[in-house]
Amino acid sequence: MIRFKKLLIIFVAIGFVFSCTKDDPNDPKNGGVNRTANLKTLGASATDLLSDVKFTSMNLEIVYVEGNKPADEAISEFQSFLQERIYKPDGISITLRSVPSSGKAPFTIEEIVEIEKEERTAYNAGDEIAVWIYFADGSNEKDTNEKFVLGSAFRNTSMVIYEQTIKEFANRNGSPSRAIIEAATLNHEFGHLFGLVDLGTEPVSNHEDSENQGHCNGDGCLMRASIEFGSGVVDVINGSGVPELDEACIDDLQSVGGR
């Protein structure tokens, strides 16, 4: 987005592939919920998230550990970002609910996947696509004093926000507000769910950062690596609030059904 030379803020986009056997308890034939459409690789549902061809509404299930509820301002900014980029004539619904701590912090992404299995209740149904967002009460296990993770998009409709890390960063002198950092993290990670940059959505033009896979090389873009690493995120947020997608990224989204 005062300068922190040693501060590295990383939004991690990690894809997982899961397969189901004939005895999968989630199979509707076995009396469960068919979850396979929500267990795809990162970026695989870009068109479904952006367009109204298959899904005319979106259900955002935001689950937060008690004491780690995102700010109302952040959720409002996030919803505005989505409304500006997607076609969902039947609307975007947001449900927030608290859950007890898993006690697993600091987290591996595999542990977040296990938490999703236990806590997620919203899956694609009919013409409604569902997204699961988890606000964790701890940090990523790979964090150091010089590098830490704010959020990770790890499947086609799943992401984690490391809320405890965001709160600690927001408390530093000269840092942006917690709400602004939350909104920037949510928007950025959803950009990865949209397949940006070249993470499932093929770029219309050559704008991927050659040194930072999955990120844009446009100045000030929401998906630019300089917003994530070093003092870049602080500079951009302080200068203009939550960063926006640049023209190249918007072109990519429009090419697969977005606004």
Automatic annotation (TrEMBL):
Gene3D superfamilies: Collagenase (Catalytic Domain). This is Membrane metalloprotease. Residues 1-22 form the signal peptide. Transmembrane segments: none annotated. Keywords: Signal. The keyword Lipoprotein does not apply. SUPFAM superfamilies: Metalloproteases ('zincins'), catalytic domain.
